[in-house]
Amino acid sequence: GAVVSQHPSWVICKSGTSVKIECRSLDFQATTMFWYRQFPKQSLMLMATSNEGSKATYEQGVEKDKFLINHASLTLSTLTVTSAHPEDSSFYICSAAGTGGSAKNIQYFGAGTRLSVL
Amino acid sequence: AQSVSQHNHHVILSEAASLELGCNYSYGGTVNLFWYVQYPGQHLQLLLKYFSGDPLVKGIKGFEAEFIKSKFSFNLRKPSVQWSDTAEYFCAVRSHNQGGKLIFGQGTELSVKP
């Protein structure tokens, strides 16, 4: 089946630094990838939709200058948390949407990245 | 407000018991419906989906769900749970009126006692 790899799985950083998270679709091309944030014991909240070759679409309330998204190829999207602060500590999850066949309109999820900002 | 609601936050069952997890949504128009499962420490996996056709859909690991359009519901069922079904279950809706975004319910934590 479709596999989405997310890296790193866990990162600890100092307040004020930037952290980059990668999301790769390993065995399929994804024109659209999604970035979610999940708080403990809560649901996934969509942060932004990342489209290959164009600017990401951010959900209301998500700071685009703080959460930089780049989708430079059909298999890679990155999320950079700039000038991270402790309130940015969370679990970030990416997904990639299949484009054809039985995978069309289905999102496949990465394992997530736990960010801890000290 | 448009939303996806999962009514059970935490369900505790003994092995072999039957399971039904509720999911209701409030989006109009055409929707695609999904159930995802997240085992402890793992990523979300697709259990089953409904796009069109037979409203009773069967997924992996013996799970099934029924789409009842009049009730805006997509409840997940399994006749006999196993300890290995212990996980977090998320209902999700993709509404064509919402630009195709996937909106998740709050999740239901299922604990199966051996």
What's the arrangement of secondary structure elements?
The complex is a heterodimer of chains A (118) and B (114).
Chain A (H helix, E strand, L loop, with lengths): L3 E4 L2 E4 L5 E7 L6 E7 L5 E8 L5 E2 L8 E7 L2 E6 L8 E8 L9 E3 L3 E5 L1
Parallel strand pairs in A: 2-11
Antiparallel strand pairs in A: 1-3, 3-8, 4-5, 4-9, 5-6, 7-8, 9-10, 9-11
Chain B lengths: L3 E2 L4 E5 L4 E3 L2 E2 L5 E8 L5 E7 L5 E3 L5 E5 L4 E6 L8 E9 L6 E3 L3 E6 L1
Report on this model:
The complex is a heterodimer of chains A (118) and B (114). With 118 residues, chain A is mainly β. Chain A is 0% helix and 52% strand. In chain A, the strands form two sheets. In chain A, strands 2, 4, 5, 6, 9, 10 and 11 form a seven-stranded mixed beta sheet that branches. Chain A has a four-stranded antiparallel beta sheet with strand order 1-3-8-7, with no helix packed on it. In chain A, a hairpin with a 2-residue loop joins strand 7 and strand 8. The radius of gyration of chain A is 14 Å and the shape is globular. The relative contact order of chain A is 0.32. The mean pLDDT of chain A is 90. Chain B has 114 residues and is mostly beta strands. Chain B contains no helices and twelve strands. In chain B, strands 2, 5, 6, 10, 11 and 12 form a six-stranded mixed beta sheet that branches. A four-stranded antiparallel beta sheet of chain B has the order 3-9-8-7, with no helix packed on it. Chain B starts with a strand and ends with a strand. The chains are: A mainly beta (118), B mainly beta (114). Chains A and B meet through strand 5 and strand 10 of A and strand 5, strand 6 and strand 11 of B.
What labels would you give this structure?
heterodimer; A: 118 residues; mainly beta; seven-stranded mixed sheet; four-stranded antiparallel sheet; 11 strands; 52% strand; globular; B: 114 residues
